[in-house]
């Protein structure tokens, strides 16, 4: 029943920044662990970052630590992914996803997530 919609993708030069948004329909995201994933052409989907619903703990893939930040705005029922110092290898379709409501802790493993958005394209190129 939970529906997610991503936005904020686009074309940027290396070193640039983007902020992705994940908005929920009807259900509050406070109750869900949320993950950001990405998939580049010819590659498997990989976990980028996630945020837990229980204690708000966050996790990041080694490739984005220090550059990306995940956060919640509960008033807007939205989860954000701030991406700084973007690299060409960051080019991919980015998806947000929610775990089942009983699983409050997040993990960077796509099979653990029940609900998925449609994705937003991020392209980093000179």
Oligomerization state of this entry?
single chain
Q: What fraction of residues sit in β-strands?
A: over 45%
Helix content: under 10%
Radius of gyration: 13 Å
Largest sheet: 7 strands, mixed
Helix-strand pattern: EEEEEEEEEEE
Overall pLDDT confidence: 96
> Uncertain segments of ≥5 residues (pLDDT<50)?
none
Number of strands: 11
Describe it for me?
Helix content is 0%, strand content 48%. The protein is mainly β and 126 residues long. The strands form two sheets. Strands 2, 4, 5, 6, 9, 10 and 11 form a seven-stranded mixed β-sheet that branches. Strands 1-3-8-7 form a four-stranded antiparallel β-sheet, with no helix packed on it. A hairpin with a 6-residue loop joins strand 4 and strand 5. It is globular, with a radius of gyration of 13 Å. The model has no long low-confidence stretch (mean pLDDT 96).
What descriptors fit this protein?
126 residues, mainly beta, 4-stranded antiparallel beta sheet, 11 strands, globular
Please specify the SSE layout and strand pairing.
Layout: E1 3-7, E2 10-12, E3 18-25, E4 34-39, E5 46-51, E6 58-60, E7 68-73, E8 78-83, E9 92-99, E10 113-116, E11 120-124
Parallel strand pairs: 2-11
Antiparallel strand pairs: 1-3, 3-8, 4-5, 4-9, 5-6, 7-8, 9-10, 9-11
